Hints:
- By secondary structure, the chain is mostly helical.
- The chain has 20 helices and 12 strands.
- α9 crosses α10 (199-215), α9 runs antiparallel to α14 (299-330) and α14 (299-330) crosses α15 (332-346).
- The termini are far apart.
Amino acid sequence: MEFLDIIIICIAAIFVVLWWRYWAVTGGGRKNLPPGPPGWPLVGNLFQIILQRKPFIYVVRDLRAKYGPIFTMQMGQRTLIIITSSDLIHEALIEKGPLFASRPPDSPIRLLFSVGKCAINSAEYGSLWRALRRNFVTELINPTRIKQCSWIRKWSIDNHMKRLEKQASTKGYIEVMTSCRLTICIILICLCFGAKISDEWIRDIETILKEVMLITLPKLPDFLPILTPLFRRQVNEAKKLRKRQLDCLVPLIRDRRAFIENGGKTNGVTRSEMVSPIGAAYVDSLFQIEPPGRGKLGEEEIVTLCSEAISAGTDTSATALEWALLHLVTNQEIQEKLYKEIVEFFGKDGVISENHVEKMPYLSAIVKESFRRHPPSHFLLSHAAIKDTELAGYTIPTNTNLELYTAWITQDPEMWEDPNEFRPERFLTGDGVDVDITGKRGVKMLPFGAGRRICPAWTLGTLHVHLLLARMVQAFKWLPIPDNPPDPTETFAFTVVMKNPLKAIILPRAKI
Length: 512
C-alpha cells in the first residue's frame, strides 16, 4: 500500500469517527425531510443499496410501496429526495419550476468533461445556463434553421436507406440500433459542424461519446468524495478519454473556423468537407458567444457543448426507433396499419415531407406509445433547489438531489389502461388523447423532462424519429428472423435499451 493511501485511510477514519458522533447527537441531520429508510452512520443507505444487488429502480419501487410517493435516501454525503407521483412531479417542475431548476454538485469526473459545468444539461440555474440554452434554441432548433437544414436530413436518410439494403444483402438481416445510431449521429454532426466526414470518423466520435456517457455515470466517490483519491485509476482513465475526445473533435472545430475566416472557402487539405454556409452550423454561434462568467469560449468548452448536442440527440432518438420497430416486427397488424397511412399521405413511392410527417395521426401515436412504454430513462436528470423549498409539506434543502422517477407514471394502472401493453390507439381514442408530453397541463409521461430544464431539442428529436420510421416502413416490410424472435428484455446503457439488440429481416415493398 502506498504511503499516500495510508494517509487517506487515516483521514477517512477520523472523518468516520466525527461523523459517527454527529449522527449520535443529531440523529442524522436536518429535520422535516420526507420519511425514508434508516441508514448507517456516515454511509447512510449507500451500502444497504449495494448489498441488495438489484437495479436501483427496483429498490425505489419497494421503498415507494413502504414510504409513499416522496421519500428520502441518504447516500453517503448526498441526500436524495425521490419523487414518484404525477402530482408532485408537476408541482416541482411546473408550478415551482424556477425553484427546482438547478443541478446538484457534480463529481470531479463529470466536471472534467463539462469543463466546470459549462454545458446546458449540467449548468446551475443562472445566467450561464440561460445564455447557453438561448443560443442553442436560436441557432439549432428554431423553425427557420430546421427548415434551412432539411437537406441534411434528406441526404443522410437517403444514405441510411442504401445502407439498409446493403446490410440486408450481405448479412441477411438489419442491426437496427447500430444503423439508426449511425444515421442520427451523421445528421447531428453535420448540424453542429456544417461538415460531411467519413463513416470511420463518425464511428470514432460515436464510440468516444458513448464511453464519455458511461464513464460519467454515478460511482462510489460521487457519494463519498473523501474516497476519490483511492480511485485515481478511474480519474486517469477519464483524463485519457477526455484527451481522445478533444483529439477527435478539435480538428472539426479548427476546420470550421478556418472555413469561416476564409469567407466560406476551404483552404488547404482537411479531413472534413464543409457543406453548410457560414452561420448555419451550431459551432458558428459558439465562436461568437460570450456567456456571463466565461467570456469567449475555448476549444474545450466548444467540444463539450457540441458533444452534448450529439450524444443526447443520438441516444434518445435511436433508442425510440429500436423500441418502435420491435413492436412493428412483433405485431404486423400495427405495421400494416402504419404503412397504409403512409401510402394515403405520400403514396407508395412519394417523397415523405417534413412538413406533414408529424401530422400523421397513427405514426404520431406509435411514436408517443414508444416513448410511453419505453421511456429513454427511468429517471430524469437530477434537479436541485436554488434555496430551501417546501414540497408536499416537507423541506427540500438547497443543492439536495431531487430525483424524479418518471417511469412509474407510464406504468401506473390508475393512469393508463393495461399499461404494459403496446397500444398506439390509446393516443387516438383512449387514455392518451390530449396527453401533453411536455407536462405543462399535467404529467402522464415525460420522455424529455418538463419545465425549465426540459430537453431543448425534443422537437428536433421527435422529427428525426418520425422521418426515419416513416421512410423505413414505406420502403420495407419488417419481419422477425425465423427461430430468433426479438427479446424485449431491458438493460441500461445511459438510455434504457434492449439487452439483446433488435435484428430484423427487411423485404422491399416494391417486390412484395
